[in-house]
Amino acid sequence: MMIPVRCFSCGQVIGDLWAKYNQRVNVNGEDPAKVLEELNVKRYCCRRMLVSHVDLIKEIITYNKK
Q: Nearest Cα to 43, choosing from 17, 63, 61?
């Protein structure tokens, strides 16, 4: 759904990096490993949080009852 504010394993703040990471990888087509290095994401647990995240909010919002 939405990217967590902190990494589940180590507690480092990663929520603010999602927009930058998503823009550079999905829109600009940059290499994810290089982007994570430049964003100073060194730990594997934090990298996993950003790389494996699937943004489903736009699909789920259509099922909201009004």
A: 17
